[in-house]
Design brief:
Helix 3 runs parallel beside helix 4 (191-202) and helix 12 packs across helix 13. Helix 11 (398-406) links the parallel strand 19 (388-391) and strand 20. By secondary structure, this protein is an alpha/beta fold. It is elongated, with a radius of gyration of 27 Å. The strands form 6 sheets. The protein has a 7-stranded parallel sheet. Strands 17-22-21-18-20-19 form a 6-stranded parallel sheet, sandwiched between helices. It contains 13 helices and 22 strands. It folds into 3 domains: 3-139, no CATH class; 160-317, Rossmann fold, CATH 3.40.50.300; 330-490, P-loop containing nucleotide triphosphate hydrolases (Rossmann fold, 3-Layer(aba) Sandwich), CATH 3.40.50.300. The structure holds zinc ion (ZN) (2 copies). Residues 97, 99-100, 102, 122, 124-125, 131 line the site of one zinc ion.
């Protein structure tokens, strides 16, 4: 698509080539040619298409992502209800993708759409659709008023730690500030959000909960629909997109399609892959929220780099909601276990531990350093008549297997680090074989240990790290957990 510049009531504007009917025809250019396209004033006589506004409000979309005719988009632009900008622009002397903020990989190519032999595209965000020098990005900051009042229907009781954190969340939302809620595994971090979210919704603020994992999106949607009956929630994750409402639960990647929209941005598991290593995700968060908005980070294991940020307010919940201390991992030396596995054998100390747990009818969640190792260990377990299943990140049946494990149809579940977060199984015993491996960082081990003792009926849990040499990460994880328990005890929050 190419555009020509024109004037409308003394305001400069652009018109798509295919909508131009007067002659002689002007010169047409790719949209990137226009250095600035100021928004046109709102024409109050014009009646915007409600579904178009609902679809586009707060978002930042390519032409192909908008199921509306070009003519209709143009009419809304002309009447001030949507804005257009070039997908690629020069910002501070650097050619930049306006959607993902990348100014690195923007190669040139011969483009059929704008007929230029030197069009440019963004390689960084191409997986979400191709942004080029000739693609317009559409956005709308026009928000239709909603009259719905949403009330919180939750009658649970917050623990002392949750109460403090909940108040901090409310304050951050009221004052548009940032806060990190550092909540130990099993402290009930979602409940900490309820009162703050109720406050935001009563003020018609737009809210986003962003999480690195699709599983969490799917789990949070029904939970929040339950406590906020009548609320329309838009779940967004790869391959699934719905018209946006003012309450969005999204994977961090999908935020790329928003622009200056959210008043409240909650970043769940801020330390988790990929937010911590992919700086463009941080760009998406900044682009998606309003300049004046609140930012709430949640995690059980913040990184040191993250904690070093200036002026970051941190509120810790060192205790679990049920008031029992966190299970502290015990270290068990197993020698060169890899060699044994290669020979189809298991260390005796491991067999004894498994036998004890099975005898006590505890489901066993068993972590291994790699996908390959889960497969290997499965076959060794099979030959020892230890009934088990394995799951890993590329496993399509993962959800089903976890369900079977939960129903106690599978006594032992072998896993790569994929299940280190989020999974809650009553009365589970947790083991790591090969805890010395580099994949088991301090935060991974803290998360893994956090799987045990989560239920109020079984608040104690066995966490055993089988290793071939203690690592700093193992020692740090043990120290981390003990410190949280001490802090909870000092506050009088332990039963
Ligand atoms: Zn990009
Ligand atoms: Zn082009």
């Amino acid at each position: 698509m190419r555009f020509a510049s024109d004037m409308l009531n003394h305001h400069p504007m652009i018109v798509p080539e295919t909508l131009y009917w007067s002659s002689p025809l002007p010169q047409f250019y790719p949209i990137g040619h226009f250095s600035s396209i100021p928004p046109l004033p709102i024409n109050k006589q014009f009646k915007p298409n409600r579904s178009l506004i609902d679809f586009l409000s707060g978002r930042h979309l390519l032409r192909d992502e908008l199921p509306f005719p070009l003519y209709e988009l143009h009419t809304h632009y002309v009447n001030g209800y949507l804005q257009i900008e070039p997908g690629i622009q020069t910002i501070n002397g650097k050619v930049t993708c306006m959607r993902c903020g990348s100014h690195r990989s923007l190669p040139t190519f011969s483009c059929a759409r704008c007929q230029s032999p030197n069009c440019q595209y963004c390689r960084n965000c191409i997986i979400m659709g191709k942004v080029t020098f000739c693609s317009p990005l559409y956005s709308s900051n026009y928000k239709q008023k909603r009259e719905e009042t949403i009330t919180l229907q939750w009658h649970g009781k917050l623990s002392e730690g949750q109460k403090e954190a909940s108040n901090a969340v409310i304050r951050a939302i009221q004052t548009n500030q940032s806060v990190l809620i550092w909540a130990v595994c099993g402290s009930g971090k979602t409940e900490v959000l309820f009162h703050g979210l109720a406050h935001a919704l009563s003020e018609h603020k737009s809210v986003c909960i962003a999480t690195p994992r699709t599983d969490v999106v799917l789990e949070l949607v029904p939970r929040l629909e339950n406590v906020f009956p009548g609320l329309t929630i838009s779940p967004l994750y790869g391959g699934h997109s719905v018209p946006s409402s003012s309450f969005v639960i999204s994977t961090t990647h999908q935020l790329i399609r928003y622009k200056e929209y959210f008043d409240v941005m909650v970043i769940d598991e801020v330390d988790a892959f990929p937010y911590n290593i992919d700086s463009s995700l941080q760009h998406h968060v900044e682009k998606a929220r309003k300049r004046s908005s609140s930012l709430i980070y949640l995690t059980a294991t913040p990184s040191e780099v993250f904690l070093k940020q200036e002026n970051l307010k941190v509120v810790r919940i060192p205790s679990r909601y049920h008031g029992s201390p966190l299970p502290v991992p015990t270290f068990k030396w197993v020698g060169n276990w890899r060699k044994k596995i290669d020979r189809g054998k298991l260390p005796q100390i491991l067999i004894d531990w498994i036998t004890r747990q099975l005898g006590a009818e505890k489901p066993i969640l068993f972590f291994l350093p790699s996908i390959k190792m889960t497969e290997k260990v499965k076959s060794v377990f099979d030959s020892h008549q230890l009934s088990c299943e394995f799951v890993h990140s590329e496993d399509e049946d993962r959800a089903e297997k976890v369900l079977q494990f939960r129903r106690k149809e599978i006594p032992i579940l072998l896993s790569s680090t994929i299940l280190e977060r989020g999974i809650t199984i009553e009365n589970v015993a947790v083991a790591v074989l090969g805890a010395e491996d580099d994949v088991f960082t301090e935060s991974a081990l803290v998360q893994i240990a956090g799987r045990a003792g989560r239920s109020a009926s079984f608040p104690e849990g066995d966490v055993s790290l089988f290793h071939y040499g203690k690592t700093n990460a193992m020692i740090a994880a043990g120290r981390h957990i003990r410190k949280m328990n001490q802090e909870a005890k000092a506050k009088g929050w332990l039963k």
